[in-house]
């Protein structure tokens, strides 16, 4: 069987036919159910780049979106603030106690997303 054609992205990443077919199936999926795509593997294989391509290719069809990277020991305050600032497209307010700020930020995310098609 001949190999599927490849496509080069704006990031210089070459996506083979199987990955291109997968990305297109995700982009053209009319099902509004929440989906999670996990990308895992050894370091320096391009996982973040593949995730970024997928995010850019299908993310435009959503009212709000966020691209975050999570380490083994994530800074939850920064993680929540990054999500909130991306979905609201503005910087979150600071100057509150850390535990209260996490709770309030999580509530803000929940309130902002309530009733939105995600």
Comma- or semicolon-separated keywords:
4 helices, mainly alpha, 2 domains, 118 residues
| Spatial order of strands in the largest sheet | 1-2
Compute the separation of the termini in Å.
39 Å
Question: What is the molecular shape?
Answer: globular
**Count the helices. How many?**
4
Q: Mind telling me the C-alpha Rg?
A: 17 Å
Query: Runs with pLDDT <50, length 5+?
Result: none
> Topology as H/E string?
EEHHHH
**Assembly form of the protein:** single chain
Largest sheet: 2 strands, antiparallel
Judged by helices, strands and strand pairing, the structural class is mainly alpha
Number of strands: 2
Helix content: 40-55%
The residue-averaged pLDDT reads 75
Strand content: under 5%
Number of domains: 2
Description:
- The chain has 118 residues and is mainly α.
- The chain folds into 2 domains: 1-61, no CATH class; 65-118, no CATH class.
- 44% of the residues lie in helices and 3% in strands.
- Strands 1-2 form a two-stranded antiparallel sheet.
- The protein is globular, with a radius of gyration of 17 Å.
């Amino acid at each position: 069987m001949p190999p599927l054609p490849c496509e080069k992205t704006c990031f210089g990443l070459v996506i083979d036919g199987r990955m291109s077919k997968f990305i297109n199936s995700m982009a053209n999926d009319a099902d509004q159910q929440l989906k999670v795509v996990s990308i895992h593997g050894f370091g320096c294989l391009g996982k973040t780049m593949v995730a970024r391509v997928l995010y850019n290719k299908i993310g435009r069809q959503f009212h709000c979106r966020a691209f975050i990277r999570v380490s083994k020991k994530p800074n939850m305050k920064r993680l929540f603030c990054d999500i909130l600032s991306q979905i609201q497209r503005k910087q979150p307010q600071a100057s509150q106690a850390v535990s209260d700020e996490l709770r309030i930020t999580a509530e803000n995310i929940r309130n902002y997303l309530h009733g939105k098609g995600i």
